[in-house]
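The passage that follows is intended for readers who have already worked through the single-chain material. We present the inputs for a multi-component assembly, then the predicted structure in tokenized form, and finally a short commentary. You are encouraged to pause after the input and sketch how you expect the pieces to fit together before reading on.
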Amino acid sequence: MGFGKATSSSKAMKIIETEKKISVLIVEDDPLIQKIHKVMMTKFGTEVQVVANGKEAVDLYHSGASFDLILMDFEMPIMDGFEATKELRSMGVTSMIVGVTSRSQDSEIQAFMKSGLNACYVKPLNAEKVTTVLNELKNN
Amino acid sequence: MERTQQHRQVAHMRQSLFDQGLLDEQFVQLEELQDDANPNFVEEVVTLFYRDSARLVLNIDQALDKSPLDFSKLDSYMHQFKGSASSIGAKKVKSECTLFREYCKAGNGEGCMKTFQQLKKDYAVLRKKLETYFQMARQVGPVETACRRK
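Having made your guess, compare it with the prediction:
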């Protein structure tokens, strides 16, 4: 399939090379966003797992799993991103947790941040946001 | 030569979707995720969007039929719909979602209904244009093929 020319953001989409692949947990109930974020993160050279709500993320950690980075949606059934992040932090989880939300009001983002996020971005993620997150993770 | 001409037509069709304000930068982000590992990624994502959003369109239609209108519910549905539309770069549909939500906040039922009628039209137009575009792009194949010497 022929598509348009690559833009400058494609040049920003460098695969971040580390000795061990960065592990990413995508916590997201929307299948469309799951697909986009999974492919995006895989393209950045990370190893990706996807769960559909906050409870599944918490259960994974309870079972002994751990990830370098969690991309946490806000609105999800069963357990939302706010509750899941609070729970993970209360369990002593120190993974980088980045909120990804369709809420764009500052007050809503600040409220989500209070759950214990390291950062929060408005959906959809793009190459620039992912680069920023992965560089921050690499530097820490 | 003919192949090059076909590729130009596909490129022109693609550009027109941006020029007409139907698509935005997010669509380009999706294109940049397409590669040999995911050769039909963009079309798959668009197909998934139209499949999943059909349910939301139905929900909104049904909610607009009720009296009195539940603006909170309508806003919630449209919030979801807007999120999905944003994810594929559906610029015009997204802006109509925003307008609809403003009418919800204002409690303006007529505004909601008019906006939703327009949104459904634009949603259908975009679908048709993208289907045509993907079909043409599939027929002409990747750009590299067109440039390959015989």
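Commentary: Residues 1-8 of chain A have pLDDT under 50 and may be disordered. The longest helix of chain A spans residues 31-43. How closely did your sketch match?
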